[in-house]
Design a protein that fits this description.
alpha/beta, single chain, five-stranded mixed beta sheet, 36% helix, 146 residues
């Protein structure tokens, strides 16, 4: 059961972590060892990633327990576009779910912007078709002067 590791909230936003791996500097690494988010964000069990059905179940549980959110954000410790097929499947499942509170919520993606490079093609049409409505590109660096 990945529920506590897969989803966490900050304010009225529900975040979904699909993996803990990144292909560039992560937010946590860029902020240093003392950085922490005021949330329930926890690493996934080593070597494990949630299946789309597990993500859907975790989101449903969170909505049942906590009520309405303004957005669901694919983010977390790792880079979501490294699991592009799971990201797209999760998005589609969330847009098809019967719960109108979930179905009507805005789906967002926080990314390092390297998805097109990693997949050697333009992934934006796939994201749009899957229901992603907004993308934020994080420009994290290990250089303290930046």
């Amino acid at each position: 059961n990945h529920t506590m590791s897969v989803v966490y909230s900050i304010g009225r936003r529900l975040y979904v972590g699909l993996l803990d791996e990144a292909n560039s500097c992560s937010l946590m690494a860029s902020r240093g060892a003392s950085f922490s988010l005021q949330s329930r964000l926890r690493p996934l069990p080593p070597g494990q990633v949630p299946e789309p059905s597990e993500v859907l179940e975790a989101v449903k549980q969170e909505f049942d327990q906590e009520g309405k959110y303004e957005s669901i954000v694919f983010a977390g410790i790792g880079e979501p576009t490294l699991r592009l097929s799971a990201l797209l499947e999760c998005s589609k499942m969330l847009k098809r779910v019967e719960d109108s509170n979930i179905k009507s919520v805005k789906l967002r993606l926080n990314t390092n912007g390297l998805g097109n490079v990693v997949h050697a093609r333009n992934i934006v049409p796939d994201l749009r078709e899957a229901g992603i409505q907004a993308v934020s590109v994080a420009l994290n660096t290990m250089d303290a002067d930046q």
